[in-house]
Structures are given as structure tokens and as C-alpha cells.
Amino acid sequence: MKRRTVVDGRDPRKQYSKAEISSPAITFESLIATFVVDAYEKHVVTSDVSGAFLKEEQKDYVLLRLTGEAFKAILRANPGKDEEYVTTEGNVGMLYVQLLQAMYGTLTAAISWYTLFAETLIQMGFVLNPYDLCVASKEINGTQFTICWYVDDIKLSHRDHREVTKMLNMLEGKFGSMNITRGLEHTYLGVNFVMNDGKIELLMIDYIQDCINSFGEAINFNAVTPANKNLFEVDENAKV
Q: Full-prediction pTM beyond 0.90?
């Protein structure tokens, strides 16, 4: 579960209900079930859409305050064009800009992208699974084509690899170039999936190792538990 909070601990703004800003996410059960089918059909592609949120227009009026390195980068990118809009607060330079496209981290960005992607699939003839709104299917040449997604991470599978390639080209035509992985080994949502002889193996060793490396403290020693310290022994001479 993931929740975004305000940096100083305040509750998020109340003008949106949770239903308006919450985006569906694929369930682990759906992911495993589709990968089991993929292990037999063997034609599966995982990909991610670069700058996915920026593909959708920002429908609400949203202002963004740029300070620090982001502020400096904008001035470097547009020399002589944005200086007139610079303002200061406490001797700190900044820019206020209006978002024209959805931006990661804003309240409605995730649901805006979900709506755009889901509607695109529906227009292409796919039907959303009523039990998992991040799984869509369509019958092509008598066989089911399945697309699963978690935000901008997408998995496509079909018995015919030519249909998978055709669908990829259509999606890239809509959303731009994507990073694509083909074959029987995929790293998807931090999990390594290896398909072989109709079986599937799941590993998270690399992901766990990345977590350990990012932790920043040595954890290669044994921790002494309270039981080892005999904290629960009774002192018969103790006064009550």
C-alpha cells in the first residue's frame, strides 16, 4: 500500500474525494495468474511508458512552485525568457508555473493516466476485467490477448508473437517509444519471472539486495533477542 503525505504532516487538500484521486492497481493474484498462462503461450512482453503522466492534459488549474535546482534548470533551459517571471521570498528565487500536462506527484496525475490508458484499450476493442480493472482482454484470431498494467508498467501476451508486436506498435504510436523486454525472463514490479517448460519461477533476490544496499547500515550480524538476555528469569530474592 502506498500513500502520499504532505511534507509537514498536514492532511492533503480536501477538494478531492478519495474516489477522484485513487487509481486502480493490478492485484498480485492477477499478475501471477496471467504469468502462468504466459508460461504456456511463451509470447510475453513487458514494457514501460516513458513520461506516462505527461501524456495526459492537466484538466484542473494547478500551480507549481519551482525553487532550488529545478528553478535554476528552468532558467538555464530558457536563457533570457523566464527572468521576468522570477519572484523572491526571503531572498530565495522561484518561479510559479501552471501545469498544462499531468505531473507525477500531483493529486490527480495517477488517475488521469489510468483513465487515459484504460480508455485507449477500450477504444481498441479490449474489455476490462470486472474483478481487476488493470487487466484487459480481447479475442484476436480465436485466442485471448491480455494486457496488464501497474501505472506505466505494462505486460502484453498472446499466443501469436506477431500480434504482440502489432499491439506494441499501436501503443507506441499513441504513447511514444517504450522500453521493451521480450522472452522468457522478465523483471516486472521488482520481481524476476523466469518461465521454463510451462512452469514459472519467481525470485526477488535482486530487489531485496537493492533494499539492503540502500539501507545504509550494516545488517550482517546476529541480533540478540530479549529471550537471549534472560529478561524473563525470576529473581527469588527480589522484593515485590
A: no
